[in-house]
Structures
1.
Amino acid sequence: MSGLPRVGVVTFPGSLDDRDALRAVAFMGGEGVPLWHADRDLRGVDAVILPGGFSYGDYLRCGAIARFAPVMEEVAAFADAGGPVVGICNGFQILCEAGLLPGALVRNRQLRFVCRWVEVRVETSISPLTGDLVAGEVLRVPVKHGEGRFVATDEQLARIEGEGLVVFRYCAADGSLGDVHNPNGASNAIAGIRNEAGNVVGLMPHPEHAVDPDVGATGGQPLFASLLSNALARVAP
Amino acid sequence: MTEPLHRALGLTDDELGSIRSTLGREPNRDELAMYAAMWSEHCSYKSSKVHLRSLPTEGPRILVGPGQDAGAVDVGDGLAAVFKMESHSHPSAIEPYQGAATGVGGIVRDVVAMGARPIAILDPLRFGPLTDERNRWLLEGVVAGIGGYGNCIGVPTVGGELQFARPHAANPTVNVMCVGVAPAERLVTSAREVREGSVLVLFGAATGRDGIGGVSVLASRTIEDGADETRPSVQIGDPFAEKLLIEASLELVDRGLLEGLQDLGGAGITCAVSESAARAGLGAEIDLDAVPLRERGLEPFEILTSESQERMLAVVAPDRVDEVRAVCERWGLPAVVVGRLVDGGALRVRIRGATVAEVSARSLADEGPEYARPREPPEAQDDLLNDDPTFATVTTSPEDAFVTVLSSPNIAGKRWVWEQYDSIVQGGTVRGPGGDAALVRIEGTLRALALSSDGKGRFGLLDPYLGAAHAVAESARNVACTGATPLAITNCLNFGNPERPEVMWQFAESVRGIADACRALETPVTGGNVSFYNESGDSAIWPTAMIGMLGVIEDYRLAVSQAFGPGSWIYLAGESFPELGGSEFGEAVLGVVGGRPPALDLERERALHLLLVHAAGTGMLESGHDCAEGGLAIALAESAIAGGTGFAVTIPGDEPPHIGMFSESASRAVLSVDPSRATELEDAAAGLGVPLARLGETGGPRIVFDGVFEMTVEEAWAIHENAIPMLLAG
């Protein structure tokens, strides 16, 4: 064994940012492990990423078909056992569809796809992506989605807020909130949430596109660093 | 009285005559449909071939020239960049979302068919004015279609162009360019060994009735009233199927399972099979019963010419067929053997055991008609040239003119468009939309491809030779401004009805302009596409030679951006002349589309590029920006807006300020350097014979044209940024 934290990235038919997530893991010093949607096998990884894209063409509803992929049973079992699971963009949609996270992602308020660099504020250290960060830190990362507006019932929303499940909110560079900084009209400017146990996190922004300084800002670096230290803690000594 | 079938299919009586003499008999209905598709203007280039032959197509870095699915250029380290541009204007005029979406799908498959992974898309677009609701509907649909398809297949849309002109209202121009990368030795070209007995495997989507007659009915005729009836000729795209098709095709290529690969686009199975066979000097037998159909009851001619999307044809050695099937199955794609290559040149088509067509593959693919159509300049051409805004009396103040030009939709910021495109997927986008050229790095190297698309509508109308030459020069300049060396072009030539001598003159002049400019700048033509019949009634689009330039920068960390930072000296490289002919100022401020376009000295142009590449490579530039549409004032403003940094400059020359500010003289760039490197830049420019004038310096929150006017960068930003969203709001 290399001793490096091993992070699995699932490729569904229609996944697009799977290679990017693998590249980001490697860039940050981990070992990226490609996983295939049809395999009931996580190859002994220490963390799982469900990447961005349009799994199964996002026909029916974003993420609605991917949740039934054979690999998802393994992902659910892994999450139940406390394993760190990260859903990025389409991966976030899949986690919501699979019931691993509350709420849903619907069509952007402006009814158009949006690809843009945004700022997000970290709201909690309790998540596989934010363990090394403190609440209030602001990170620059890109979003790119047509259906990224987080919504939930009033009851769910009250619980999400009450239990501190919000992990990221869209904000200004100084961390202040405002509608103009919210790229899709998400409820309470929510960009990412976690489960109660704190080991499953979903977010619309793409941290994997924000680790290499040669192609943009590096707000994704501390998130991947946190994920790798979280995963490392699970590597058998 | 009903029209004879051949005419209804778009064939002339003479063309029918030569089909008869090739076959030695009367063609049947299915054969006629195959010829109509393959001999259509769109597929056969029958009106353009005679001119296109004059284009320079060879150079030390050209690996694949015109005639293949896409061109290929050696970009070092044994890698090839594969690229091509195509038009999807006709379908987009009828159904903007699907028309544009399937345009993206088609050009991406062209690149995949060469065995290359698509890494970038660019979309140059032309519409009528946004003050008209229908034009807004077209723009919104086309942009949504490009995004809807491109975003879903995971290929970043990194650039393009958007201009507006009234003649493009009935006929919007929708061009799409795709760029891919492959190991040079793995390129799939016809040079590969394709043998008699090789099997033809059709994989991807099932075949339906969509797109029947797309090339012969839609793309090879003008769009008249009642165009809605041709809507069924527009294909419907399924980007998810395309994504699977890309991955499956590239896996087949990577594993060396293929002898050949063709995408199915215009003219469908007929085109893919006849070209595969003709290139190998063989014939083919195909069995239509094997073709997976979306619905029952398709006629043979429908199966043969359907333009259903997301299909590919592989040429496979018989003993590799099972492996090919297994790969396709893994990606969830049906793959069936539909035929094989055979000795002799005949293409034989069977259905239910009976032969329904038997024609020469070569006559379909290569022996289409060729026309040297008459050409003549339009009568009013001299009047247009003489109506030159350079000599007009101007009462508008320079400040008002500046605001008018900066907020003109041609000049204004296009963020509303490019934010709808995923420009960063694949992780290689060093520089995305909004600058002079996009930069996409080649994985595992420090090299990046520099990509720009440019067309010069007004210049083209006034002088098609100069317009096309300017388009080549400007696209090369855009690439050079980032520090990259321009290497080669692809193109899409958008024109009206070639049967009209004025249009044919515009076309021939444009090709001549491209040829001269490409020779002088040493950027050969690797391929392209011709889109004729872009007219309604007697109103043609502006002759638009769209150029897609590809360059390479050796180390993308040295790439230069157009953004000003504080504390630099500003220089204008190149020389300004009183040249407002065909300018944005002329149209936006004076309402005049006329005059003589700026002169173009290709030697000076090339010297400027050498300076830009040298200056970037030695790290002496803080910024570099092409100075073209809108003139010097706009180039300065764009650099200020991009960097959020103001400037103070003196516009050189003794003429009234609007001449120096808005003239669109060629071969110029706005540069900024740290004062400590100014001498170095001046020496380099002198060495290359490039005129260099210091205009002022950067810094502060204001843009200041000394003695003329000033405003804040923030005001300029708002004018530039908000113009298009405000127009779209109606």
2.
Amino acid sequence: MARVSETLKLEMVALLPRLRGFARSLAGSAHDADDLVQQTCERALSTTAGPPEGARLDAWLFRIMRNLFIDGYRRKRPVVALDEAAAQNLAGSDGRVVEEARLEWQAVRAVIAGLPEDQRSVLVLVCVEGLRYREVAEVMDIPIGTVMSRLARARGAIAAALDGETDATAQRGAGE
Amino acid sequence: MTQAKVTDEMLMAFVDGELDAAEAERIGALIAADAGLAGRAEKFRQSRLAVQRALSAGRDEPPPAHLVAGILGTGQDLAPRRGLGGRGWAVAASVGVLAAALGFGASRYLDGPVGEASLMATATSGSLLARLAETPAGGSVAVGPATAMVTGSYPVEGGYCRLYAVSAETEQVRALACGGDGAWTVPVAVLEGGGGFQPASAAEAIDIYLDTAGAGAALDAAGEQAAIAAGWAAR
């Protein structure tokens, strides 16, 4: 049994950057996010079965993570703000980063941070993690129609922010 | 109006590639014929890209060592630590594993991708195997532009097998080195391409071999240290 989990562990290590990314979108600060990743891995390793037959390892871990977050973290940290450290890291690591792109990130990240958690999770799982709608429905225990309506709402908010960025002089007329 | 027939959800699903072929063709044709629809679809495409750009920052940074150590257990038996909460993780973190070993972050320091043949050759070279023989699980060694990390050691009939991974910029070889007493062979080595989660083919191949070889549970840190000190002499 220890052996089977060895290979699973390697795959989990390979997924750490993505686990940390999703955790940051849930937990806000980098520190809380890594705590959440840690708890998620611990929970995953303590299961005897591993991911269910046919399930993607990443989707299974996202599901564990989100459930842990809902069980514990949300109570502790009702106000969620996306951590800015990641954006600064990227800016620092690439001298070609232009101010324009940073402004767009900031605007988009602000919108994402302001979304309710259920919309934010759907948005991140689809747009960043590349999960199918069906897979997101399983991760979040919701019907696929709910995935789509939440995702469309979140994307609408992002699109509105992008319009604001590209046309900075425009009045905030289409207030949705 | 045409637009009334096509909902936001349908346009979004079209952009996200979630529609079946027939429906995608139908929506695609409607979009091609209607600038209003095309504009709405474009907003969904742009919003997806913008979210990717905004949140992909920092995703290539190496994860902290304590998270890697917490998963790999660094050669120690994980089972007793389960359920201990924070304490177990603190123990794991104190061991200190090089997180870059599996290729994150490391890639940006590399000169370029290592060719398929050469990464496989590197991963199975006698010189690497000799160095890995002196490296405990959780430890890593640099081999040219790639990094090798030992992830576990198993007693098998007549000797030992050690699981390791050699990672370069876009690909990784996972392999077993088996033998001992200064003579190692590599019965299983699987090359995996870059990019995201891999199907468990390497894992399966390795498990099948270990089963066939009659492998026992992973050595704990002390057992491994003793084996290294003894030069992996056949038991």
3.
Amino acid sequence: MTLDIVQMVLVTVLTAATPLILAGIGELVTERAGVLNLGVEGMMVLGAAAGFAVAMQTGSTGLGALGGAGAGVLLAALFGVLTVGLAANQVASGLALTILGLGLSGLVGASYVGLKREPAPHLSLPGLTDLPGIGRLFFGQDAFVYAALALVVGVWWFLGRTRAGLMLRAVGDDHTATHALGVKVRKVRFLAVLFGGACAGLAGAYLSLAYTPFWAPAMTAGRGWIALALVVFASWRPFRVAAGALLFGGATVLQLHAQAAGLGLPGQLLSAMPYLATILALVLLSLGRRRGGSPGPAALGQVFTPSR
Amino acid sequence: MRLDLIPRARRSPWFDALTPVLAFALAVMIGGIAVSALGVAPSDAFLTYFVAPLSEVWSIQEVALKAAPLALIATGLAFCYRAGLWNIGAEGQYVVGGLAGGIVAIAAHGMEGFTLWVLPAMLVAGTLAGLAYAMIPALLKVRLGVSEILTSLMLVYVAQLLLDYMVRGPLRDPKGYNFPQSVSFDPFARLPYLTEGESLHAGVLVAALALALAALVLARTLFGFEVRLVGTSPRAARFAGFSQSRLTLAVFAISGGAAGLAGILEVAGRIGQLQPEISPGYGFTAIIVAFLGRLSPPGILIAAFVIALTTIGGENAQIDLKLPLDLTRAFQGLLLGLVLGADVIARCHVRLVPGGKTALPEAR
């Protein structure tokens, strides 16, 4: 019995962590290529709106997820043209992307406010899913959760074990040297930006198709920014992003339970917890880094214009 | 096809002034296409957004009332952005400023006798609160190297929740039928109107004064030079012996103080009490204004009016043409993106080389 309660808590932690894992792993790849895209929140919220809209129109959750990822890619492409192609300031362009994404998502989602869908179907394997204590946690999630975990492993393998991944990291650490080696710096960066957009869009689609299966304006509620902080917190390592997201998901669930239990703390304080926790995490991390941790990609945030 | 960017030897002031105009024209064109896709004639929309708000005295005043906080916050932010520091939490500093100034007004509520000090005290409290709130990300950056981008933004959410808590809790009007709002400020705690019966209040003058002061500091003082130098050439600034940490604290103080002042001006001017929402996103919109105005005070002033115009126009368009308010936000985001992209023309010669593959670097 207690095992089932533990499982229930772990399941909610995992679902709360999934959007952060998805968006965080995408941004990790973008940043490893040396591009800081602060527009995660905008791509995510547009992904949520577009994903829900496509799913309502087609009746298919899978197509909805694709639509969300596609919307993220479109916004990311705009960001890529600005920062990689035209060498515009990355911080300001990322902010523009967030504002644009919030506005566009309102337009896309306007006619879907108040509508509900069935949440994305959960895996059901006879025998396995019903295993007491662990069945639902391991064999009863929806496709987004498995996709997120697969992405973490895939990105870890790609960055650390493949030649293309090595090239991407090299671009992020020293674009002048890699350019001199004949690597197409801008192409690599543009693709990395698009990948980040697809992941952020998918994270948004997860919110509107599975986590809370409806669309509400600005429903991402700062998760895109928290995903950005997670990447720093994780020292740009894939598995640490997943671990950080789970920690964070745990904190969110704890906060919800505390709110329900009514500990006498004002609700606003509990709602502020995720943001305060993020700041605290960043502080602790930089205290730790003083004792020799890994810094970020060396060329992060720097624009590159190839010399002729 | 290959895109070549060759940095210009020197920037032309003509291009600097022209590129935002170009970006604006492009944004208006794209906006026109979007509007016609929503079934409204672009000409009607253009009139509603950009012309109608300027056709009557009261709506011009509304534009000025919206432009003032935007220009004030954006000018403060320009100090940060010029120095290459990213305070994106002006919205939070604005909210905290409004809250702190409002607390002074609520404490002085019902006071008799000499009350002339209340309003100045409110403005000082608001400015200092915004300044202090901006010191959190600044100190974390200077002392621990924590990214100011993320901390300043996270503090926006915290500030909004703090205001929400205060207005629903300790500061709620006991006779207010449980509405989440404070008492209405006494007349001595309100900014006076410039002319009787109109909506323009003295806050616009205070903002204009602060703007002029900032322009002077940026253009004519050693400190202003330091800010500009660190932004354009950090290495030269280090050799000149300018302290990066001192500068970080200073520009965050300026931007936070300006945002806090804007917050209390809005609360003591237009709103006249504390409520859960005291900003229609001024702190974020001001980021657009700062870049649209090319981080220079005169440019920011023009940009603030343009953005205020589109905001008022957007509200009118929602009523008259049934165009959603999110269209304005999308337009503003697009405009910022285009301004940043168009900036490349001022910085570089842009060449599209058809059919060319990315050239391998030549040996030097």
